[in-house]
From TrEMBL:
UniProt cross-references to InterPro entries, sorted A to Z: Asn_synth_AEB, Asn_synthase, ASN_synthetase/amidase, AsnB_N, GATase_2_dom, Ntn_hydrolases_N, Rossmann-like_a/b/a_fold
Positions of the Glutamine amidotransferase type-2 domain: 2-213
Coiled-coil region(s): none
Gene: asnB
Name of the protein in question: asparagine synthase (glutamine-hydrolyzing)
Pathway: Amino-acid biosynthesis; L-asparagine biosynthesis; L-asparagine from L-aspartate (L-Gln route): step 1/1
Single annotated GO MF: asparagine synthase (glutamine-hydrolyzing) activity
Length: 672
């Protein structure tokens, strides 16, 4: 994967200069440490930072078609590029590289906008049509890779990360108060935005065409249908497992395509273990696997990771994550992630990707996506229990089913308590709410907003996030089963904007590592959408089809193992006697007042409590509030104080790096 950036000038505006493009791409050089490329004409400036995965020798971008009328700067991988290339060559197209990037150019040349739906991959595309003076910004089906844009007068700037927009000097970094409040409710902003004022995100499965007059035309090129395929209504569990295994093998086979070695993450859970086992069936050469261990036993899964690695036969590497490691990594995580966090979970994954890099591997497979598409999270069980309870709200027996969910949250006795039941009873009868399953969680996390400054809290608009997500719900969504509706909400409102971003792309690309997701392959997802609910979840038994696949590949300790959410120490790692100096600095009265984003008195009181108790808080939402405030302060310092100095340092590094393409056609493509 790579980093992309560029500036499109309006019909009467001056094109971006080469130095501006260099400043932009230098900010995201971590995404592509193998060299830089540039293209300029009278309207567009394109920049690219390359991470070499496919077509190592000749794949430097921007890349063009035969007539040099189409130019692309692209971040990602097209896994079916071999098949697409074969078809395009049969249609008369001639290629000058062996890259998947050039396949996109010729596919667009042949099929126009219909090309996007033909791409099996993870991608963020910026494609310039020099004849029509049109720019296309396109993102993959599930938003695995980022792509941002912003208007500045008669120019539109775009890039893989917002810091590149700021580094160019055309876009000023300012926070959007309403979107900050969204993070303190939903863990992320809605998929179409960012925490920065005026900086938008290309939504997943969307192509935006910017015409010659800088007007934006947005269209979705794909949406799921999770109503279930009537032809599969009678499928047995074994048949569903057979089909799922077949599709996963195909997805992994495609994702093993690379001109560099491909490793695999092993968390100790079901999903990554299945991917590792299937990958070994396809690749019997030496394969490296990677896992995170925790010094705190409450979070550690070392025995399960090593059991899987030994069973499937990988050369396993792991890293022991301590409180000090989380402290050291968190500032880098925030710089790269460009958003406050209400969890520390991305920090160990940042350390894991660094281990991958230091081991000489550039690409890894991950099990992300299985819980969403195959109903593995407890939220799906919560929804089922609460809907069942809602039919008899006064039942004393039905709420007892709650004791069977969240095995790691509390002891059985606590989960039978009236307090536990009262929590889940809130809004229980409002089953027509389109976000019924998620509402109770969002309301609980929104408690953290009380630490935001009054003007930030006043800008909060709980409806805005709902409306944004609702506006992009697929056709027919209301006719889906409750399980399918909850699954898609989890995908659209959590997996895409948070998991694939803060715990995926950002922490991996910070160390120039590409993560590939077989469970997010289009063929796998279309199958999962078509399968009946009963082979995904029956009663409160989850991921039935996947567990049946796992039973053929893995030890019983793994395929019978209940879902264990990935978590990391939070305030116990950051507060108290072991607190790093930056915590007291960022939460000092001077720093809190400097940025004006939080309620200084409320933060000071809660932070003092955390220091007194060595970070042991009464509840998780207090922990989330403190982590959110701390990381918001970090981000404010990054973009409001430190960005100019960082930009200067990174720009100097670019001058010492190889520049493989520099084409300028200022006369032949002058502004119309």
């Amino acid at each position: 994967m790579c980093g992309v950036a560029g500036v499109l000038a309006g019909p009467r505006a001056e094109p971006a200069g080469l130095d501006e493009l260099k400043r932009m791409i230098a900010m995201i050089g971590h995404r592509g440490p193998d060299g830089y490329g540039f293209y300029r004409d009278g309207r567009i400036g394109l920049a690219h930072a390359r991470l070499s995965i496919v077509g190592l020798a000749g794949g430097f971008q921007p890349i063009h078609n035969e007539e040099r009328t189409l130019w692309i700067t692209f971040n990602g991988e097209i896994f079916n590029h071999v098949e697409l290339r074969r078809d395009l060559e049969a249609r008369g197209h001639r290629f000058y590289t062996r890259t998947d990037t050039e396949v996109i150019v010729h596919a667009f040349e042949e099929y126009g906008p219909a090309a996007w739906a033909k791409l099996n991959g993870q991608f963020a595309i910026s494609l310039w049509d020099a004849v029509k003076r049109e720019l296309w910004l396109v993102r993959d089906r599930l938003g695995i890779l980022p792509l941002f844009y912003a208007r500045s007068g008669d120019h539109l700037a775009f890039a893989s990360e917002a810091k590149a927009l700021f580094g160019g000097g055309r876009i000023e970094p300012r926070f959007d108060a309403a979107r900050l409040a969204q993070v303190f409710t939903h863990w992320s902003v809605a998929p179409q935005g960012s925490v920065f004022a005026g900086v938008q995100s290309v939504p997943p499965a969307t192509a935006i065409r910017i015409d010659a007059d800088l007007r934006l035309h947005e269209a979705r090129y794909w949406e799921p249908d999770m109503a279930g395929d009537p032809a599969l209504s009678g499928i047995t569990l074994d048949e569903a497992a057979d089909r799922l295994e077949e599709k996963l093998l195909d997805a992994i086979r495609l994702r093993l395509r690379a001109d560099v070695p491909v490793g695999v993450y092993i968390s100790g859970g079901l999903d990554s273990s299945v991917i590792a086992a299937l990958a070994r069936k396809l690749d019997t050469t030496q394969m490296h696997s990677f896992g995170v261990r925790f010094a705190d036993n409450a979070f550690d899964e070392t025995p399960q990771q090593r059991l899987v690695a030994g069973h499937v036969g990988t050369e396993h590497h792991d890293i022991l994550c301590t409180a000090e490691d989380i402290q050291a990594a968190l500032p880098d995580v925030i710089w790269h992630g460009e958003s406050p966090l209400v969890r520390t979970a991305p920090a160990p994954l940042f350390l894991l990707s660094r281990l991958v890099r230091d081991s000489g591997i550039r690409v890894v497979l991950s099990g992300e996506g299985a819980d969403e598409w195959l109903a593995g999270y407890d939220i799906f069980k919560e929804d089922k229990v609460r809907r069942f309870w809602a039919r008899q709200p006064h039942s004393a027996a039905r709420p007892k089913l709650l004791s069977r969910i969240h095995p790691y949250a509390a002891t059985s006795g606590q989960k039978d308590s009236p307090l536990w039941q009262a929590f889940w009873k809130r809004g229980m009868t409002e089953t027509d709410d389109p976000f019924y399953a998620h509402r109770i969680r969002w309301q609980n996390t929104a408690w953290t907003q009380r630490l935001l400054a009054p003007d930030v809290r006043s800008a909060a608009n709980a409806q805005a996030f709902d409306e944004t997500v609702a506006a992009h719900l697929p056709a027919g969504w209301s006719r889906w089963s409750p399980l399918a509706r909850t699954q898609w909400t989890e995908i659209a409102a959590f997996m895409s904007p948070y998991l694939l971003t803060s715990q995926g792309d950002r922490v991996a690309m910070a160390n120039s590592i590409e993560v590939r997701y077989p469970f997010l392959d289009p063929e796998v997802d279309d199958l999962c959408a078509a399968l009946p609910d009963r082979v995904k979840m029956l009663g409160l038994r989850d991921k039935l089809a996947l567990r049946r696949v796992a039973s053929r590949l893995l030890p019983a300790e793994i395929f019978h193992r209940p879902k264990r959410p990935y978590r990391a120490p939070m305030t116990t790692a950051l507060f108290g006697a072991q607190a790093p100096a930056y915590v007291r600095d960022l939460l000092s009265e001077e720093s809190l007042n400097r940025y004006g984003l939080v309620d200084a008195a409320g933060v000071a009181a809660l932070a003092a409590k955390a220091h007194r108790t060595d970070g042991r808080m009464a509840g998780e939402r207090e922990e989330m509030a403190l982590v959110g405030v701390l990381t918001l302060q970090m981000l404010a310092r990054n973009v409001l104080d430190e960005l100019p100095g960082r930009a200067s340092t990174l720009r100097a590094r670019l001058d010492a790096a190889p520049i493989h393409i520099l084409e300028e056609h200022l006369d032949s493509a002058a502004a119309a």
